Amino acid sequence: MLNSPTALDAADPLASFRDRFVHADEELIYLDGNSLGRLPRTTAGRVAAAITEEWGRGLIRSWSHWIDLARGIGDEIATGVVSARPGEVLVGDSTTVNLYKLAAAALDARPDRRVIVLDDDNFPTDLYVLQGLAAARGLSLRTVHTDIDAGLDLDVLRAALDEDVALVCLSHVAYRSGALADMGAVTDAVHAVGALMLWDLSHAAGSVEVPLDSSGADLAVGCTYKYLNGGPGAPAFVYVRRELQASLRQPIWGWFGQRDQFAMGPEYRPVDGIERFAVGTPPVLGLYGVQEGIRPVIEAGIGAIRAKGIALTSYAIEWHDEWLAPLGFRVASPRDASRRGGHVSLHHEDAWRICQALIARQVVPDYRTPSRLRLGFSPLTTSFQDVHDGLSRLRDLVVAGEHRTYDATPGRVT
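RESULT FIELD:
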C-alpha cells in the first residue's frame, strides 16, 4: 500500500510555499513547472510598482539603481541557487544568446584546438548554436551518444576526449528524461585533456544542487522561467568562474560590457569582472520578475527543494508501477533517484493523444519526442495530492480510451 498523499502533504516542510503562488483554477493540476513555473503572488505588484513608480514617476532617474540589477540578482542566484561566488553570475539575454557568447569565448581561449564535444540528447538550441559556431570557424563537432532514458555514460564521454577538444557542452539535467549528470566527475574528465566545460543548467537551477564552485566548472548558462518562476521569456543567466573572467572575451561587444561606460569612448575595452559578459540595456521589468521568482527558492533552500523533488518523482514512479505499467506505459527516466532531476518522463506509443486527453481532464503535462509524457514536479508548488490525482486521471482516461478521439498529429507547441 502506497503512502496517503494527504499524510505526505501534512508532513511536507515546504507545503506552505504553495500558497505563495497563484492558483487561478483550483481544479487544475499543473505538472509542467519544469517548462514554465507558476506565478509568484508578489510578482504582479512588484512589476506594477516598477512601472508606475520607477518608470512612471522616476523616469530616467531610476537608472541609478536599475543599472546594478543584473549583477545584484546574479549574486542572489550565485549564492542562493547554484553554489557559486558573488561576481560570477550575471542575468540578461536569452539562454541561447548566452550559450553563444560563452561558447565563442571558450573557443577563442583554445585557438589551437579544433573539436567541440556534445551529446546527441542535448537540448536542440545548444546543438544548433554549436553547429553554427563550428560551421563559421571550420571546427568539428564530436557527438557522444547518450541513452535518452538513462542519461550520459561517463566512460563513453571519456573515450571522446583528447587534446584536440576545445570545449565540451552538456546539460546538467537532461531535458527529455530528467537524467542528472555528475557535474564534478564530468568536469574533471574534461579538464584532464585541457578543455573547457560549459554546462546548461536550464532544467537544474532551482530543482537540484548545482555545485559550480566545488566541481571546478568553467562556464554555465541557465534559464529563469522554469523552476525559478521568473515568467515567460524571463532573462537567462551566465556563470563564468572568477579565475577565467579576465582571459575570456565574449563576441558581442556591447556598451554594457564596456569599461567607463558613459565616457562613450571610441574603442571597446571590457570591464574586468562578470559584467564583461553583458551586452545591451538590461530588461528591467523582466529582472524584477526573476528577483521575485527566486526569493521563495532561496528561502526554502536548495537542499530541501531537492529532497522534496526526489520524494515527488519517486512517488510518481510508484503510482506508475501500480496503475500505468499495465496500460503500456514505461518509465523513461532513471529510477535511481540520485541520478534523476525534478521531472519524470513516461513512454507510451500513443503519448501525444494521451497528453491532449489529459489536458482536457485538467491535468497539464507536456509531450516530448519520441512518444513521451513529461511530468514536471516543481517542489514549491506541487503537492503529493497533485501527483496522486494527476496520475489517477491519467489512468482513468487511458482505461476509458478517451485519447483515441484526439488527432494523432502533434501541434506546433508540445
